[in-house]
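Forum > Structural Biology > Help requests

Title: Can anyone predict the 3D structure of peptidoglycan lytic exotransglycosylase?

Hi all, first post here. I have the sequence for peptidoglycan lytic exotransglycosylase but no way to get a structure on my laptop. I'd be grateful if someone could post the structure tokens.
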Amino acid sequence: MRLSRLVSSGPRATWAFGAVPLALALVLALGGCGDSTDKRGEQSAGGQTGAPGAAVPPLRLERVGFEDLPGWRAEDFEGALMALRASCARVDGQPEDRAIGTEAIALTAGDFATACAGLPDTAPGPGADAGAVRHFFQDHFVPYRVLGPEGAEGLFTGYFEAELMGSRMRTDTYDTPIYGLPEDLIVADLGRFSDDLAGERIVGRVEGGRFVPYPDRGAIEGGYLAERDLELLWIDDPVDVFLLQVQGSGRVILPDGEVVRVGFAGHNGRPYRSIGRVLIERGDLAPHAASWDGIRGWITENPEKARALFAENPRFVFFREVPARTGPGQPDGPIGAQGVPLTPGRSLAVDRGLIPLGLPVWLDTTRPGESDAPLRRLMVAQDTGGAIKGAVRGDYFWGHGDAALAEAGRMRSRGAYYLLLPEAAATRRRAAPSS
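Reply #1:
Sure, ran it for you. Structure tokens for peptidoglycan lytic exotransglycosylase below:
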């Protein structure tokens, strides 16, 4: 099955927008101050005093010991060091006082210096002695339980990287294009015109001396970009191309076996609309049948209506070819929001407004599906996503291929996680006043 990673939760993209949980994407494409001190007297985010009636801060940290991390002693760390090494490379060489944290959790590049310099050379794996790696983390980091307004439990979903079959040339088999970014597409930063609009952007083009919205999906797929030499690749399945746009990044396998990775380059500025929700509203699918299999089945039975269904989602995504990364011992996943390649089973998307990217995270949840089997392992916060909001919220990167799709599509698990703060940052927190 060559499915695109049906995003995590809306158009994700390990992309410039970020991650969208696949389980939620199945709904989207088809269709989350009390006492401010922790138990050791360290001030948590926001500096609230816990006065009666005070607002509950969006994130609090409670210092714990490594013995409090469920399953810590059983971790094998396979792939964990590779993921952390990629994040360390991102901060290496930056000024030590450069802020890389959040308003809730203050961190600097210098906080990571000692730990990153001391990363073990060992490559732990199943059956290997992980003791040295475990001691490394215990010597350089301090664990903190993360609590949101609702407590320590939150939602964890999964996502994967899309995989499609394609060609660099158009043929009878490969006849659906993936487009590069058009030269007439303009992103306007409204914050340059008014401080009240800081952070707001709109997308459009100039027509007759006026700035107008960029054409929607229907117009683009109807030929607006024809004969402009913007086709990056040609794909054998228009459904996969649609899902790639929901996903925001993916792998394209060429006829000779070469793998080309494409990543998010921009979009037409139109709002995203769930085609699954459209099918439900029209009565074409029952809500319980609006899974990806249900949607693809409907399209298979109604191929002449597929294009009109896709046009119900006016957003159109453009791509760029991402250079291959072949360094020894380096992850080869799509680029996450931290700017590093993601590691299957070790990269976690978080709310970057609350959780600093690059931090090790101990995850305590359950495996996808109906099982109560625990999923406990060391992750690294390396990505984000439009639907990944809140203190206790994560999107688990499963990799690519059918097995990854199966796990990502079923994952909607409740659980908790713990941040591993570098010792220097933990020391500052201990020294901070408690009120």
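Residues 80-91 form the longest helix (12 residues). Residues 277 and 283 are 10 Å apart (CA to CA).
Shout if anything looks off.
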